């Protein structure tokens, strides 16, 4: 993995396409993390550059500086990718690396500080340097599709909390069933059976729901 480059203030501002005065303003508003100090010299790195480019992109999309500041605070105080993924990456889900502006594009202006904080609390989002990590490409695609259909992201996330509760209960039921009759080493091999049962039962339940008068 390549080492991060470091920049003096003037070079960082030039690369980000802003003035030094604007950079100082962003730093005073705590829109970017503090630089590394070496005596009287402030050193910025690629994470600062990524954040500045994100701020520019969000401003172009109509976000206010106050809203961006709240997003930055939620982002800086969110769980990092290690906390999000735990000991290892998900065994079947594909994590997705996103810049904050890419995340905003997925949710059509609904990537608010409140929704971002809710997604972090749910365990969907974590931080990795200048990027955001979503725990699952499938969940990202489904949630963004629901938002495009007109369902508010806040309600999608609230529904996800309820789904998480039921999913945990189903996982515990299946695990207990297997461990009563097999060993823990059999769980990975039998895991697809649990998924098939849940998918089939959900499909049948949706049929019953849609057929109700």
Automatic annotation (TrEMBL):
Keywords attached to this entry: DNA-binding
Ranges for domain HTH merR-type: 6-74
DNA-binding recorded as keyword: yes
Record carries keyword Kinase: no
SUPFAM superfamilies for this protein: Putative DNA-binding domain (SSF46955)
Domain of life of the source: Bacteria
Name of protein: MerR family transcriptional regulator
Origin species: Streptomyces lomondensis
């Amino acid at each position: 993995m390549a080492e991060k480059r470091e920049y003096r203030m003037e070079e960082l501002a030039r690369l980000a396409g802003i003035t030094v005065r604007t950079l100082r303003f962003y730093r005073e508003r705590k829109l970017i993390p503090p630089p590394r100090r070496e005596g009287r010299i402030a050193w910025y790195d690629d994470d600062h550059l990524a954040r500045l480019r994100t701020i520019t992109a969000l401003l172009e999309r109509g976000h206010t500086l106050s809203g961006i500041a709240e997003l930055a605070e939620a982002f800086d105080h969110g769980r990092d990718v290690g906390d999000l993924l735990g000991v290892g990456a998900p065994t079947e889900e594909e994590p997705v690396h996103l810049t904050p502006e890419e995340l905003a594009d997925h949710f059509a202006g609904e990537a608010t500080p409140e929704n971002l904080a809710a997604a972090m609390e749910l365990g969907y989002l974590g931080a990795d340097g200048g990027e955001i990590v979503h725990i699952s490409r499938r969940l990202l695609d489904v949630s963004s599709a629901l938002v495009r259909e007109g369902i508010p992201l806040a309600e999608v996330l609230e529904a996800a909390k309820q789904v998480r509760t039921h999913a945990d209960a189903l996982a515990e039921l299946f695990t207990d069933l297997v461990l009563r009759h097999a060993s823990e080493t059999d769980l990975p091999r039998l895991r697809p059976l649990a998924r098939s049962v849940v998918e089939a039962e959900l499909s049948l339940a949706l049929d019953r729901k849609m057929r109700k008068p």
